[in-house]
Protein 1
Amino acid sequence: MENHTVVETAKKVLDALYRDLDRLEVAEGVKGLRKAVTVEMAKYLIYLTESDGRIKWAEARILSEFLDLDMQPEDIYDFLDDKDHYAEEFEQGLPLLFQKTVELDNKIFALGGRETTCASEWMLAAYKCLGISLVEADGEVSKEENEKIRAYIKKMEEYLEERLLPGIVKKWVKRRAGDE
């Protein structure tokens, strides 16, 4: 897929995710979901950036462009210097907001709402698109980057399949099958 197309798709998906998070904030009376997703996505993108051992300007620009963070390669290196075993620790878990969003989607569905795409689906799509945008940004997708993005997205998909209420899972799996 051409990087320009991936970037445009990523922007649209991120906008849809933000709209859904805004709705969740109102429906559930919670605050700060956009900020939380920005922090968690930054951690994910830094994890992917570091996977090939090089952090390039094009990758730092993705963090700046999508997440409104003023990041330069040196900032990412500084962040990683303070964190021993960052990749190993990151791979052990899933974003807390993603887990919480699955819970909120289940709650809304159980109360009779949501017949369309749920926030956790938008979040998964955003992780996919932003990850692809990042690893393709420098024009070189390494084997390590490709493996890490695939493994992490698979882990998120499995979490959705295991945790979403059955009615949502059926719709999600059906939509996902149509996308492939």
Note: The mean pLDDT is 81.
Protein 2
Amino acid sequence: MIKKKLAAVLLVCILTFAFIGCDKTPEQEPPPAGGIATAPDFSAHAGDDLVVGGYIGNARRYAGYASNAGKAEYRALYAQYAKEAGLNTIFGLRLAQIAKPSYVEEILDACEQNNVKMMLSMQGLTYPNDVADYVGNSESSPAFLGYDFWDEPGASQYAALEKQMAVFKQDHPDKNAFVNLLPSYATWGLGGQLQAQTYSEYVQKFTETCPSVSQVCLDHYPLIGDMAADVAISSQLSEDWLSDMEENANAAKAAGKDFWCYTQGMAYGNRRVPESAADLTFQNYVSMCFGVKGLIYFCLDTPGEEGDPGEFSGMVYGMIDRDGNKTVIHDYAAAANAQLKSFGYVYKQFAWEDVMAVSGSEDGDNIAFENLDSPLRSSEHFTASANHDTLIGTFTHAQKGLRGYMVVPYVDPHLNHAGTDFMYPDTQVTLTFKSKQVLVYGNGESKVVEIPNGMYTATLRPGQGQFIVPFD
């Protein structure tokens, strides 16, 4: 009897120990690395950067002709300066202005040495008739990206451009056939620059007439202001900038092509000078809200000659001045492009869907927002609010089943420039997701933020932005 009692007691102890040792609910397990769920990993795409280019405004000076301080060594120096600014592509080298294939070949050799691509400009020439006399052997260079067939054509030119591009794409299916379109502030009407009755007609006719073009590209320079010497004394944003972006982004999406656009990197006419890197990041991030995969700065060099009549006369300068020296805008671009490089390869993996314009609770009417034709009004995937006007680009990643959001305050960085008396307050943007974590890219860094209640708030100064990927 005593043995049976001891055996029973021992059995109870064993069962009790076993029960206690196994009593762990999932909540008591240590969380996996990274929190509730492991953050998505995009490291395999590092180095697959956005196209970040600079436009050449004076091809003869670049080629080393005796124009002001033109030097033969510019043919190597410009590619080096482009690389130092964080550019990976050069645009706008007009072959008709150089007319020496040997110079072009030297330029592309320098580009190859600096890991920079070159989009040669065929403007004023005809493909393939003029290749031998103006291009030489440059098409075989690893730095050759393709041809810029025309900068800012009118609609009546589309058919002729398509004829050339179709032949080029047959000859070089892996190269780019590029055309840059006019903005809506060009003159309308059949006798105007657009050669179309409406801007929408101008853009839609392009994608319909030119199926061989590789991208849809727009230049709309939004920083308007008065200048005193080389200092901006006033500033406002172009009211039609966003509607132009929307028109071209939707046309590119419908045609199954990437959307590229230009970034204003200098003063000219009634456009003000960029005052800091924030002026460049602001434009880049707004463009990214519309899904751009290529950004081109106007300009890498400085167009025209000092003293010439026209919009490029006087104290204007790009990243490189007329004497071949780097300017402060070169420094701004290097800083802005370092930001792009830190997350552009992640952003590039997502497909653009739409853009939402969030009116700030502390702001009045925004004509640029009102000019948008069909922005996203609401979403089943998120809600958003902000104290100042904010743009949110929405994206999807089909392979990973993720969504992404490009967020940028729509606030002119001039309002927060050190030279102004008033410092604009930060923008607080709150987004509510169905997820419990977000992967946030911004300010050159990435981080995982846990959001147990699904709410994430970004605090952003003018010119700042974030790319946000909810997950769990």
Note: The radius of gyration is 27 Å.
Protein 3
Amino acid sequence: MKHNRRIWLFELCKEYKRQRREAALSGQSLGEYELTRRVLAKGCPFYDVSYAYARRVISLMSRGCECPVKGPRRDMWIEIFEKVSDLRQRHGLDLSDALCRVLTASRASRYFLSQSRLYRLYLNEEFHSADPGRSSR
């Protein structure tokens, strides 16, 4: 899972730098607020969540319980739940298989972070050194 987190951070960092570069090339002077808003609006390559935790949350939601997560990540869980429900209904898959398909083959619609959290990640040294080819510490 740590390797997936590194890839996720690497992709996030790459998008942040790409947005900053595009703004500079077009002559725009973007503040950090606008820059983080643009990054968060872009699609994310995958969901940054472990299968075991996703299984617990989606199982709760499929039994009719409210999503236990608050904040921007709540939208992520609702999106995952809707995709899992759709796969189960259309293809007759059980919860485990549908969840596995969503986590491995489905693209997240966006990064599920607050703007302040993204900016803190950007300032963090780990964010700048995130490289999927590096071994975990």
Note: The mean pLDDT is 83.
Protein 4
Amino acid sequence: MTNIVFSSEYITTFIVMLSLCVLVPILLFVRYYMSKKPKLASFFVGCLGALLVVGGKYLIDMFFVVMLGLGEYVNPSIHPVYTALYVAIVSAILMTLSTWILFRYGMEGRAGRENAFLMLIGKGGLYAIAYGGVSSMTYLSVALTINNDGLEKYLNAITDPANREAQQKAVTALAERPIGEIVSEGVFHLLIMILQIALGVLIYMAMHKTKDILSKQKLSHIKTKEKQDLAWYEKRTEGLIPLTVFLQALLIFPLAILQAGLAADYALIMLAAGVLFTIMVSFGCYTVFKQVK
């Protein structure tokens, strides 16, 4: 059995990605809460939304794999592209649906954009920790254990032969992954967090009547400068929720492609495109957010 040793560059990368995926959401929460003083309960409502995404994804996976017997079509080693599409579409739908549920049923007594934004920080932040932070912690734990005890001792601790073989393949694949791909995976989780927060503004807009959430200045501007009635604006918001699903799926898909073992050589290019995409969408959502009271 070929022994595997993770270099210090790999260990450092795992530590940096773990730190980013945990500290960035925490710092974002602290900064916004201390500056705006929204209701703290809004944050925990958002955390519940992240748990809805995780639990919903598990139940849907069980439905397709166990009940319908379609496991091979969501197996990245057999159909990586199908798997990536499945992950992107299901995750985007769950992220949007969970945000809709929270705004509809979880924010009673916590009106206003500051509370809404803090809720989105809780939801997106816990997502980044649950997926980016936990995966980085897993990678780091495996790497340190193998470096200290050796691959053979690590595998011998697994009693089931099938699991042992699968774990050996997974460890070998991890050791062969380019560092740029590992970095891209971690940063993509942070980008998805940011996009969840930004697109939550559009869901907030879609779920409220224009006259109830736009500032007085914007309402006056609509009537006097743009010479449009509010009904025209109401129609514009009807397609915002499907749009959020589409935009989130666009960002999740390249991450799912990387996790399926494809396009490793283009990881940094895909990451750069993801960063640019997230900046553009977030800027557009920010301009909307400024008009909300």
Note: The mean pLDDT is 85.
